[in-house]
Amino acid sequence: MNDSLSDARVIGIDLGTSGIKLVMLSADGTLEAEASAPLEVSRPQPLWSEQSPADWWAALDTAMRHLREAAGGARWAKVRGMAAAGQMHGAVLLDAAGEVLRPAILWNDGRSQAQCEALERAEPATRRITANRAMAGFTAPKLLWVAAHEPQVFAKTARVLLPKDWLAWKLTGVFSTEMSDASGTLWLDVAGRRWSDAMLKATGLDASHMPMLFEGPDVVGELSPACAERWGLPAGVLVAAGAGDNAAGAVGVGVVSPGDGFISLGTSGVVFCATHEARANPERGVHTFCHALPGTWHHMGVLLSASSALSWWSGVTGLAPGALMDELGGAIRSTRPDAPFFLPYLSGERTPHADPSATGSFIGLTHAHGRADMSRAVIEGVSFAFADALDAMREAGSRPERLLAIGGGARSDTWLQLLADVLGTPIDKPEGAEVGPALGAARLALMGLGVSRDDVLRRPAIARSFIPDAAHAAGLAARLQRFRAAYAPLRALNP
Ligand SMILES: Nc1ncnc2c1ncn2[C@@H]1O[C@H](COP(=O)(O)OP(=O)(O)O)[C@@H](O)[C@H]1O
Ligand SMILES: O=C(CO)[C@@H](O)[C@H](O)COP(=O)(O)O
């Protein structure tokens, strides 16, 4: 590392769904400060999920002030770089003057199923070009929905940005994105790592609506003087392109070589495996996306409600997620034959069902069951949904031998052991499990400053490993078959 870099600091931003998280790293990758600010999701109509970009900016502003306090003046003065990770797929529509035209439509918004079908009809090569099937959370169908239902907004749309790229534009004045997040738009030729004119045309757009494409560590611009002054940062801070939150989470825990994998227990649930090529399995809803580093790709299975199912149950019961898990304790492993089931499709599902209208259900309740049985069902149901997602990924050729666990749900050792038993895969809980994507963004910023990839991409220290327990796994495998059988008949009851 050259001398001028050795005392530099970088800031990593993670624009999550439930909040914005920031970290500061030293040039040797040490985590020196953290800060966060919460965010709310608005669900004004069934299937809708929206946030206001102005709220993201206000949360970033609050969190930057907290990070400055946590870091201290001497370190703050040495900030040389930053980068953002963020919730993927969201559509931020801007007019020609750069004004936001409507609330951002988020990754877990299910309104555009009809437009997914229309998109694949309009461009029959969609799955070949994009390596993915059209799913309602992705960006392109959202634009078709806007064209059909808000034509005046569509007509004024001059640019479409992804959530973290809107923040980057506010930070630098540059319209940019990078390969990992762009993969979730359905406008990217994922194998070729370039915009697809055919996919843009099928959505009524062209290349002028798209930001410039970068690789994750590339520098896209400098922090604007106005932002530097507002937060008391030095002039000339370089802003790197960053990554979608999952690719960034992978960089944060060093999951970059083919076969490396992680499981993310955030609002959404993700099983992620790095690959050396864009090998697709779109039929079962496997996401085949570019990774944040040039020449690499990854597979993902995505659950729309993972820890958010626990948060929902926490709201219903009035007990915090941690308290619910404590109440369960060891009971999570004693599978009663009459234990109820839970289908966790509270906001539809992507992998493997690709069904935004799927709903959640408790099944098999009797007078014998109480809160703890239902909490257990929620956690088990989300874990079974992870098993379905991993199965679809294995079909696509991704068979991770171990999984690192990240995201808010990874706070619970009880849940991680259950997941190891259900998936039949050892799970490693890294130190600092909760800062994955922000840490990954900060690492990309370090690479943007010129720190070598090998110096940056270290694997984390493991706080604890969870090894599958064969005796428990056998009972769970039988329950998983019954869980799988429940989706189709219950789906038939929905309008
Ligand atoms: N002790 C705990 N055990 C299990 N899950 C928890 C615990 N504390 C918080 N959570 C879950 O963590 C989730 C937030 O995770 P996070 O990774 O921050 O989400 P996101 O990045 O999507 O905003 C919440 O949905 C909550 O249910
Ligand atoms: O839609 C996806 C990935 O395809 C989600 O993973 C979002 O990127 C949201 O992430 P979190 O807010 O749960 O971290």
Automatic annotation (TrEMBL):
Residue positions of the active site: D245
One Pfam family, short name: FGGY_N
The entry's keywords: ATP-binding, Carbohydrate metabolism, Kinase, Nucleotide-binding, Transferase, Xylose metabolism
The enzyme's E.C. designation: 2.7.1.17
One GO BP annotation of this record: D-xylose metabolic process
Domain Carbohydrate kinase FGGY N-terminal: 10-252
UniProt xrefs under InterPro entries: ATPase_NBD (IPR043129), Carb_kinase_FGGY (IPR000577), Carb_kinase_FGGY_CS (IPR018483), FGGY_C (IPR018485), FGGY_Carb_Kinase (IPR050406), FGGY_N (IPR018484), Xylulokinase (IPR006000)
A Gene Ontology molecular function term of the record: D-xylulokinase activity
Keyword Lyase: no
Keyword Signal: no
Catalytic reactions of this protein: D-xylulose + ATP = D-xylulose 5-phosphate + ADP + H(+)
Residues that hold substrate according to the record: M88, H89
Membrane-traversing stretches: none
Site location (Important for activity): D14
Annotated ranges, domain Carbohydrate kinase FGGY C-terminal: 262-448
Function: Catalyzes the phosphorylation of D-xylulose to D-xylulose 5-phosphate.
Family: Belongs to the FGGY kinase family.
NCBIfam families: XylB
UniProt protein name: Xylulose kinase
Organism this protein belongs to: Piscinibacter terrae
